Amino acid sequence: MTRLDKPGPLLAVEGLSVRFDTRRQCQRVIDDISFTVERGETVCIVGESGSGKTLTALSLMSLLPPGMSVAAGALRFNGQDLLALDAGRRAMLYGDRIAMIFQDPMSSLNPVLTIGRQITESLARHQPSLTRRERELRAEQALSLAGIPDAGEKMRRYPHELSGGLCQRSLIAIALVNQPRLIIADEPTTALDVTVQAQVMNSMRAACRQTGAALLLITHDMGLVAQHADRVVVMYAGRIVEQGRAGQVFRSSRHPYTRALLSAIPRLDSDVDRELEVIAGEPPLFSRLPSGCAFRPRCRLCRDRPVCAATIPPPRVEQGDPLHVSACHFAHELAVPTRMERK
């Protein structure tokens, strides 16, 4: 623990709710979620599109779209409640102690500024005492740390002159240059091919290990979760349905939605003629959530049980593992090995 660290987790999200206000109604789109990120660990938030993953990340960075606001909860970073800070103090944390890597590098990078200029601008804002030469050296070091070869030469390039993978690594360098304690990465490899995905993720994880930064990775790719996560948080319809150590969740998941996501992963030892399993139906709209459990209409375990329609399942700690929490009325019926354990 460094001199500036305080006891407890690096990031603690406590009862966070986000609402969307319209003239007709006030709709909650993130509903009472809680999770933590410890120093130096990688936590993955996973779920289908529309589950609330990106909105959770944006709320942490005070970047919610117009009309949306935090309705309840606390966001504690190193013991400080971000929501209690004024806008100026929060702005000094963002990009410095907390950094975010966005999904699309070509829309996140400024097309009329060189890569080097975009990195040194961040340094000039948060570390104004550095000289111009010191900022350039730090920028070059950040590019090298992000896995970019010939970093000095790439600093003079514009985004359109680089490949998608190099642009994504440039965003990683911008996030790393101020040596943040927490990096939030929102689907950082979605637009890249599989080989480049692996290279970018390896560069990002290596950089985090070298700097000691924690990583909060937003993804829908369970393969990435299996390779890189220490802990996993599974979201559905704006709520957390399961969370725990990645290995435990993969081996013995306790929520039908998590099981369905895992069953949809293709396996190398599967019959090539066997169809992939799919989750029936579509995620619900936030404005039309079903009563009780939001996953109920797509759940094979529900079978029209009255409690599933009547009550939102509360989070329950699984026996034998205080870090493994699931929100299913019938989690005990899933106490059998998942497909991930079988040959």
Automatic annotation (TrEMBL):
| GO terms for biological process, alphabetical | peptide transport; transmembrane transport
EC number, UniProt record = 7.4.2.9
In its keyword annotation, does this UniProt entry include Oxidoreductase?
no
Q: Which segments does the entry list as coiled coil?
A: none
Answer whether the UniProt record assigns the keyword Nucleus to this protein: no
**Which controlled-vocabulary keywords does the entry list?**
ATP-binding, Cell membrane, Membrane, Nucleotide-binding, Transport
Annotated InterPro entries: AAA+_ATPase, ABC_Ni/Peptide_Import, ABC_transporter-like_ATP-bd, Oligopep_ABC_C, P-loop_NTPase
Molecular function terms in GO for this entry? ATP binding; ATP hydrolysis activity
Q: Which residues form the signal peptide?
A: none
ABC transporter domain span: 11-262
Q: What class of enzyme is it?
A: translocase
Which reactions are catalysed by this chain?
a dipeptide(out) + ATP + H2O = a dipeptide(in) + ADP + phosphate + H(+)
**Pfam families assigned to the protein according to its UniProt record, in alphabetical order:** ABC_tran (PF00005), oligo_HPY (PF08352)
Q: How does the protein associate with the membrane?
A: Peripheral membrane protein
CDD domains under this entry?
ABC_NikE_OppD_transporters
The record's Gene Ontology cellular component field reads: plasma membrane
- Where, subcellularly, is it found? Cell inner membrane
Which family does the record assign? Belongs to the ABC transporter superfamily.
Q: What is this protein called?
A: ABC-type dipeptide transporter
